[in-house]
Write a structure and sequence with these properties.
Shape: globular
Number of strands: 13
Radius of gyration: 27 Å
Membrane topology: Lipid-anchor
Strand content: 25-35%
Pfam family, one: Spore_GerAC_N
Subcellular location: Membrane
Keywords: Germination, Lipoprotein, Membrane, Palmitate, Signal
Helix content: 25-40%
Largest sheet: 9 strands, mixed
Number of domains: 2
Protein name: Spore germination protein GerC
Length: about 425
């Protein structure tokens, strides 16, 4: 065989070897029926006495392999039942006990999140799979004690998507994954769609779990999560923002104060309404406006050794409702008066929203990141760490100007 022929033969063999891995097929496949597909997880506190009565010694043995000394948690898991999840509009609907036909809710206890899931795996035959996890619900008491262990477990798991939602529940978190909402057969999907529809309607910022982790890890910013509650008819209400300092929940806002965060950050679309009373002692001159668009600009200076922020917020609004008949809104002077009053009250409102986060040292707006970006020399010399920024944030002053423009007053201006 000539040298040229040998070269061609070797080249052909090498090419075939390169294609061999592609011919292996699904060598590591796992049938969906062999997976326990987790859709939602709830995490609640549990007393040591109650937990010790329920726990299984799966990852530890008392006396020889002692468990962690930290407090125990209860993990509630919503597992999809194969073949029961609705696939189209014809199969939609919910309530009337139908939730039990689509998902299986089971709870276990453990000393840590990983320990609890080990106990869960001991009770079910299929391998736990987090690839379709959509919602993680924390109770308020768990969030206040700290979520470092929770973040660590889910961040290390490669199956967990960064587009999932983490939220803080008012009261017991397990109630939310046990609920049977009327509009959806799968409670987890109802929780997820509630938040995503709020984003589309301009009522909540986009803040998936990946964004929360990113903000929490920044030196000049803190993370926040949706603060939710379940109502009497098992519908879910977004009660505000649950804001953190490091890994600990330190405060919550009211529902209307979400618009304060959105306005300062200039998030669009806008979707909140506001009551505007033109005279303090005269409720007969009151209207309701609907903000449709926001724009914000934040300027930074160093004054007296501290960062000083000047925030300009511009709002476009429609006149939604004239609450009584004594006010004539076809007069340009009346419209200008509405714009002036709403501008003044909005400035105070935004100032109060910032102030309540300052009291807790929780900069969810990311002002510290602006200092790092625009004044890196000042940051490195005077701050340099997350802890120092948390303390400095409490002492900052903010100048806020708001400019409201009424664009539409409706068809009837009588």
């Amino acid at each position: 065989m000539s040298g040229m022929a040998k070269t061609r033969l070797i080249a052909t063999v090498l090419v075939l070897l390169l294609f061999m891995p592609l011919l292996a097929g699904c060598w590591d496949r796992l049938e969906i029926d062999d997976r326990a597909v987790v859709l939602g997880v709830s995490i609640d506190e549990v007393s040591n006495q109650e937990g010790e009565e329920e726990e299984q010694e799966v990852s530890h043995v008392k006396g020889s392999l002692p468990p962690p000394s930290k407090g125990m948690v209860r993990i509630g898991v919503q597992i999809a039942l194969p073949g029961r999840i609705p696939l189209g509009p014809g199969e939609a609907g919910g309530g009337n006990g139908e939730t039990k036909d689509t998902v299986w809710v089971i709870s276990v206890v453990g000393h840590t999140v990983d320990d609890a899931f080990m106990n869960l795996q001991q009770q079910i035959s299929a391998r736990i799979f987090f690839g379709h996890l959509r919602v993680i619900v924390l109770s308020e008491s768990v969030a206040k004690k700290g979520i470092e262990n929770i973040n660590d477990f889910f961040r290390r798991n490669p199956e967990v998507r960064r587009m999932a939602w983490m939220m803080v529940a008012k009261g017991r978190a397990e109630k939310l994954i046990e609920a049977s909402p009327k509009l959806e057969r799968v409670p987890t999907l109802y929780l997820m769609s509630t938040l995503e529809n709020s984003i589309r309607m301009g009522k909540f910022p986009k803040n998936y779990i990946g964004q929360f982790w990113s903000n929490s890890s920044k030196l000049g910013q803190e993370g926040f999560l949706p603060y939710i509650d379940i109502k009497e008819n098992e519908n879910v209400g977004v009660q505000g923002l649950a804001y953190f300092r490091g890994n600990h929940l330190v405060g919550t806002t009211k529902p209307a104060e979400i618009s304060g965060f959105l306005g300062i950050r200039g998030v669009n679309p806008a979707g909140y309404r506001a009551v505007v009373q033109l005279e303090k002692d005269n409720s007969n001159k009151t209207v309701m406006t609907n903000v449709t668009h926001r724009y914000s600009r934040i300027n930074l200076d160093i004054k007296d050794g501290l960062p000083r922020f000047r925030i300009l917020v511009e709002l476009e609004a429609n006149l939604e409702e004239k609450i009584n008949g004594e006010l004539s809104i076809d007069d340009p002077e009346t419209i200008r008066r509405i714009e002036q009053v709403q501008s003044e009250t909005s400035a105070v409102f935004y100032q109060n929203v910032i102030r309540q986060t300052q009291l807790k040292g929780s900069d969810i707006f990311g002002f510290g990141e602006q200092v790092r970006a625009k004044k890196p020399g000042y940051w490195n010399k005077n701050i340099g760490s997350k802890e120092k920024w948390q303390e400095m944030y409490k002492r900052l002053e903010f100048d806020i100007d708001v400019n409201v423009k009424i664009r539409r007053v409706g068809m009837n201006a009588m």
